[in-house]
Design goal:
D-Maltodextrin-Binding Protein, domain 2, alpha/beta, 9 helices, 3-stranded parallel β-sheet, single chain
Protein backbone atom coordinates (compact mmCIF):
# COMPACT_ATOMS: atom_id res chain seq x y z
CA UNK A 1 0.00 0.00 0.00
CA UNK A 2 2.77 2.45 0.81
CA UNK A 3 4.42 1.70 -2.47
CA UNK A 4 1.24 2.28 -4.46
CA UNK A 5 0.43 5.42 -2.45
CA UNK A 6 3.94 6.70 -3.07
CA UNK A 7 3.53 6.02 -6.78
CA UNK A 8 0.35 8.09 -6.91
CA UNK A 9 2.11 10.96 -5.15
CA UNK A 10 5.02 10.72 -7.56
CA UNK A 11 2.68 10.74 -10.54
CA UNK A 12 0.89 13.78 -9.17
CA UNK A 13 4.17 15.60 -8.74
CA UNK A 14 5.27 14.71 -12.28
CA UNK A 15 1.97 15.94 -13.71
CA UNK A 16 2.32 19.19 -11.76
CA UNK A 17 5.89 19.72 -12.93
CA UNK A 18 4.89 18.97 -16.51
CA UNK A 19 2.06 21.49 -16.33
CA UNK A 20 4.33 24.16 -14.90
CA UNK A 21 6.96 23.42 -17.53
CA UNK A 22 4.38 23.61 -20.29
CA UNK A 23 3.03 26.88 -18.93
CA UNK A 24 6.55 28.23 -18.65
CA UNK A 25 7.32 27.17 -22.20
CA UNK A 26 4.15 28.81 -23.47
CA UNK A 27 4.92 31.94 -21.50
CA UNK A 28 8.45 32.02 -22.88
CA UNK A 29 7.23 31.46 -26.41
CA UNK A 30 4.62 34.16 -25.96
CA UNK A 31 7.18 36.54 -24.47
CA UNK A 32 9.57 35.71 -27.26
CA UNK A 33 6.94 36.40 -29.86
CA UNK A 34 5.85 39.54 -28.10
CA UNK A 35 9.47 40.67 -27.74
CA UNK A 36 10.02 40.12 -31.42
CA UNK A 37 6.86 42.01 -32.27
CA UNK A 38 7.41 44.87 -29.85
CA UNK A 39 11.12 44.81 -30.62
CA UNK A 40 10.52 44.34 -34.29
CA UNK A 41 12.25 47.60 -34.93
CA UNK A 42 13.95 47.01 -38.21
CA UNK A 43 17.68 46.68 -38.35
CA UNK A 44 19.78 49.51 -39.71
CA UNK A 45 20.15 47.31 -42.78
CA UNK A 46 16.43 47.53 -43.56
CA UNK A 47 16.33 51.21 -42.61
CA UNK A 48 19.12 52.06 -45.05
CA UNK A 49 17.57 50.11 -47.91
CA UNK A 50 14.14 51.64 -47.28
CA UNK A 51 15.59 55.13 -46.97
CA UNK A 52 17.72 54.70 -50.09
CA UNK A 53 20.69 56.42 -48.46
CA UNK A 54 23.60 55.19 -46.36
CA UNK A 55 24.75 57.84 -43.88
CA UNK A 56 28.43 57.42 -43.07
CA UNK A 57 30.65 59.48 -40.79
CA UNK A 58 34.12 60.08 -42.20
CA UNK A 59 36.90 62.42 -41.12
CA UNK A 60 37.33 64.88 -43.98
CA UNK A 61 40.40 66.56 -42.49
CA UNK A 62 42.43 63.37 -42.61
CA UNK A 63 43.82 62.89 -46.14
CA UNK A 64 44.19 60.53 -47.85
CA UNK A 65 41.51 58.81 -45.73
CA UNK A 66 39.16 61.75 -46.04
CA UNK A 67 39.22 65.27 -47.43
CA UNK A 68 37.32 67.47 -49.89
CA UNK A 69 38.18 68.30 -53.48
CA UNK A 70 38.14 71.74 -55.13
CA UNK A 71 34.36 71.45 -55.46
CA UNK A 72 34.03 70.67 -51.74
CA UNK A 73 33.05 67.10 -52.55
CA UNK A 74 34.18 64.37 -50.10
CA UNK A 75 37.05 62.20 -51.31
CA UNK A 76 39.59 59.74 -49.93
CA UNK A 77 40.16 56.10 -49.11
CA UNK A 78 37.50 55.92 -46.38
CA UNK A 79 35.06 57.83 -48.58
CA UNK A 80 35.60 55.28 -51.36
CA UNK A 81 35.06 52.42 -48.88
CA UNK A 82 31.78 54.00 -47.77
CA UNK A 83 30.75 54.50 -51.39
CA UNK A 84 31.51 50.86 -52.17
CA UNK A 85 29.29 49.83 -49.23
CA UNK A 86 26.43 51.94 -50.55
CA UNK A 87 26.85 50.52 -54.05
CA UNK A 88 26.63 46.98 -52.68
CA UNK A 89 23.41 47.96 -50.89
CA UNK A 90 21.99 49.59 -54.00
CA UNK A 91 21.64 52.98 -52.29
CA UNK A 92 23.26 56.42 -52.36
CA UNK A 93 25.94 57.42 -49.88
CA UNK A 94 25.81 60.54 -47.71
CA UNK A 95 29.11 61.44 -46.09
CA UNK A 96 28.88 63.25 -42.75
CA UNK A 97 32.08 65.05 -41.79
CA UNK A 98 33.18 64.15 -38.27
CA UNK A 99 36.11 64.33 -35.88
CA UNK A 100 37.77 61.55 -33.91
CA UNK A 101 35.99 62.69 -30.74
CA UNK A 102 32.54 62.67 -32.39
CA UNK A 103 32.67 59.25 -34.01
CA UNK A 104 30.95 57.42 -31.15
CA UNK A 105 28.37 60.17 -30.40
CA UNK A 106 27.37 60.23 -34.08
CA UNK A 107 26.50 56.53 -33.87
CA UNK A 108 24.80 56.73 -30.49
CA UNK A 109 22.54 59.58 -31.61
CA UNK A 110 21.78 57.76 -34.88
CA UNK A 111 23.12 60.65 -36.90
CA UNK A 112 24.89 58.06 -39.04
CA UNK A 113 24.50 54.36 -39.84
CA UNK A 114 28.22 53.62 -39.77
CA UNK A 115 31.58 55.23 -39.10
CA UNK A 116 34.36 54.78 -41.63
CA UNK A 117 37.06 57.02 -40.21
CA UNK A 118 40.29 55.22 -39.35
CA UNK A 119 38.51 53.83 -36.26
CA UNK A 120 40.89 51.70 -34.17
CA UNK A 121 39.10 48.82 -32.49
CA UNK A 122 39.56 48.67 -28.72
CA UNK A 123 37.78 46.79 -25.95
CA UNK A 124 36.92 50.08 -24.24
CA UNK A 125 35.28 51.53 -27.35
CA UNK A 126 33.47 48.25 -27.95
CA UNK A 127 31.45 48.97 -24.79
CA UNK A 128 29.73 51.74 -26.74
CA UNK A 129 29.82 50.68 -30.40
CA UNK A 130 30.22 47.49 -32.39
CA UNK A 131 33.16 47.00 -34.74
CA UNK A 132 33.35 45.13 -38.01
CA UNK A 133 36.27 42.96 -39.00
CA UNK A 134 39.40 45.00 -39.90
CA UNK A 135 39.40 46.76 -43.25
CA UNK A 136 42.79 48.48 -42.86
CA UNK A 137 45.80 48.01 -40.57
CA UNK A 138 48.43 50.47 -39.41
CA UNK A 139 51.27 51.10 -37.06
CA UNK A 140 51.42 54.31 -35.03
CA UNK A 141 54.56 56.25 -35.87
CA UNK A 142 56.03 59.71 -35.38
CA UNK A 143 56.03 62.56 -37.86
CA UNK A 144 58.95 64.92 -37.23
CA UNK A 145 61.12 67.41 -39.06
CA UNK A 146 64.14 65.81 -40.67
CA UNK A 147 66.34 68.17 -38.69
CA UNK A 148 64.76 67.24 -35.32
CA UNK A 149 67.07 64.37 -34.42
CA UNK A 150 64.04 62.40 -33.23
CA UNK A 151 63.96 58.75 -34.21
CA UNK A 152 62.42 56.86 -31.29
CA UNK A 153 60.17 57.36 -28.27
CA UNK A 154 63.27 57.78 -26.11
CA UNK A 155 64.07 60.96 -28.02
CA UNK A 156 60.78 62.53 -26.88
CA UNK A 157 61.89 63.29 -23.33
CA UNK A 158 60.89 66.89 -22.61
CA UNK A 159 59.47 67.21 -26.14
CA UNK A 160 55.93 68.19 -27.10
CA UNK A 161 53.96 65.57 -28.99
CA UNK A 162 50.81 66.51 -30.89
CA UNK A 163 47.87 64.07 -30.86
CA UNK A 164 44.22 64.33 -31.87
CA UNK A 165 41.45 64.51 -29.28
CA UNK A 166 39.59 61.23 -28.87
CA UNK A 167 42.51 59.12 -30.10
CA UNK A 168 44.51 56.56 -28.12
CA UNK A 169 47.86 58.00 -29.19
CA UNK A 170 48.54 60.20 -26.18
CA UNK A 171 48.27 57.25 -23.82
CA UNK A 172 50.57 55.21 -26.06
CA UNK A 173 53.26 57.90 -26.02
CA UNK A 174 53.04 58.31 -22.24
CA UNK A 175 53.35 54.57 -21.77
CA UNK A 176 56.51 54.55 -23.87
CA UNK A 177 57.99 57.76 -22.48
CA UNK A 178 56.31 59.31 -19.40
CA UNK A 179 58.52 62.40 -19.77
CA UNK A 180 56.99 63.40 -23.09
CA UNK A 181 54.55 66.34 -23.12
CA UNK A 182 51.19 65.67 -24.78
CA UNK A 183 49.32 68.42 -26.62
CA UNK A 184 45.84 67.66 -28.02
CA UNK A 185 44.42 69.11 -31.24
CA UNK A 186 40.93 68.91 -32.70
CA UNK A 187 42.07 67.39 -35.99
CA UNK A 188 45.03 65.46 -37.37
CA UNK A 189 45.64 68.22 -39.90
CA UNK A 190 45.99 70.74 -37.06
CA UNK A 191 48.48 68.44 -35.34
CA UNK A 192 50.54 68.11 -38.53
CA UNK A 193 50.54 71.89 -38.90
CA UNK A 194 51.79 72.20 -35.32
CA UNK A 195 54.85 70.15 -36.26
CA UNK A 196 55.44 72.17 -39.42
CA UNK A 197 55.21 75.47 -37.50
CA UNK A 198 57.37 74.29 -34.59
CA UNK A 199 54.55 74.31 -32.03
CA UNK A 200 55.13 70.59 -31.50
CA UNK A 201 58.26 68.51 -31.88
CA UNK A 202 56.46 65.44 -33.16
CA UNK A 203 53.07 64.06 -34.00
CA UNK A 204 51.96 60.48 -33.50
CA UNK A 205 49.35 59.06 -35.82
CA UNK A 206 48.44 56.30 -38.25
CA UNK A 207 51.44 55.27 -40.37
CA UNK A 208 49.37 55.34 -43.56
CA UNK A 209 48.34 58.93 -42.93
CA UNK A 210 51.80 60.13 -41.93
CA UNK A 211 53.58 58.52 -44.86
CA UNK A 212 51.22 60.46 -47.08
CA UNK A 213 52.01 63.69 -45.20
CA UNK A 214 55.78 63.17 -45.50
CA UNK A 215 55.35 62.54 -49.21
CA UNK A 216 53.67 65.95 -49.53
CA UNK A 217 56.37 67.82 -47.56
CA UNK A 218 60.07 66.91 -48.09
CA UNK A 219 61.05 68.67 -44.83
CA UNK A 220 59.22 65.98 -42.84
CA UNK A 221 60.03 62.36 -42.14
CA UNK A 222 58.29 59.38 -40.55
CA UNK A 223 60.13 57.35 -37.91
CA UNK A 224 60.42 53.61 -38.35
CA UNK A 225 59.59 52.63 -34.78
CA UNK A 226 55.90 52.02 -34.10
CA UNK A 227 54.67 53.55 -30.87
CA UNK A 228 52.27 50.64 -30.36
CA UNK A 229 51.72 47.22 -31.91
CA UNK A 230 49.76 47.11 -35.13
CA UNK A 231 46.32 48.64 -34.89
CA UNK A 232 43.31 47.12 -36.61
CA UNK A 233 40.71 49.57 -37.83
CA UNK A 234 37.11 48.53 -38.27
CA UNK A 235 33.85 50.04 -39.42
CA UNK A 236 31.86 51.27 -36.44
CA UNK A 237 28.15 50.42 -36.27
CA UNK A 238 25.48 50.84 -33.56
CA UNK A 239 25.79 48.51 -30.60
CA UNK A 240 23.25 45.67 -30.49
CA UNK A 241 22.35 45.53 -34.19
CA UNK A 242 23.56 42.04 -35.08
CA UNK A 243 21.86 41.99 -38.48
CA UNK A 244 23.59 45.15 -39.65
CA UNK A 245 26.97 44.02 -38.30
CA UNK A 246 26.63 40.66 -40.05
CA UNK A 247 25.92 42.34 -43.37
CA UNK A 248 28.90 44.69 -43.01
CA UNK A 249 31.26 41.80 -42.23
CA UNK A 250 29.91 39.69 -45.08
CA UNK A 251 30.31 42.59 -47.48
CA UNK A 252 33.84 43.30 -46.20
CA UNK A 253 34.88 39.74 -46.97
CA UNK A 254 33.68 40.12 -50.55
CA UNK A 255 35.21 43.60 -50.77
CA UNK A 256 38.62 42.27 -49.74
CA UNK A 257 38.70 38.96 -51.58
CA UNK A 258 37.57 40.57 -54.86
CA UNK A 259 40.67 42.75 -54.92
CA UNK A 260 38.61 45.95 -54.80
CA UNK A 261 40.01 46.91 -51.41
CA UNK A 262 43.61 46.37 -52.55
CA UNK A 263 43.01 48.54 -55.64
CA UNK A 264 41.60 51.37 -53.53
CA UNK A 265 44.51 51.19 -51.11
CA UNK A 266 47.05 51.49 -53.92
CA UNK A 267 45.04 54.32 -55.49
CA UNK A 268 45.27 56.47 -52.36
CA UNK A 269 48.57 55.42 -50.76
CA UNK A 270 50.59 54.55 -53.85
CA UNK A 271 51.79 51.21 -52.46
CA UNK A 272 50.38 47.77 -51.76
CA UNK A 273 49.00 47.00 -48.30
CA UNK A 274 51.98 46.79 -45.92
CA UNK A 275 50.20 44.65 -43.33
CA UNK A 276 47.84 41.66 -43.53
CA UNK A 277 44.27 42.25 -42.36
CA UNK A 278 44.21 39.17 -40.13
CA UNK A 279 46.37 39.43 -37.01
CA UNK A 280 48.80 36.65 -36.15
CA UNK A 281 49.56 35.84 -32.54
Amino acid sequence: MRFRHGTRNLMAICIGVTAVASLSACTSASAGTGGSASGSQSSTLQDVIKRGTLNVASCLTFPPFGSTDKNNKPQGFDVDVATAMATALGVKVHIVDTTSANRIPNLQTKKVDAVVCNFTTTAERAKQVAFSDPYIVAGEVLLVKKSSGIDTLKDLTGKTVAVTKGSTNGDAVKAGNPKAKIQEYDTSSAAVLAVKQGQADAMVEDSNFLNYQAKQDPSLKVTKESVVPLEYNGIGVPLGDATWLQWVNTWLREFNTSGQAADLYKKWFGVSRPYPLNPSY
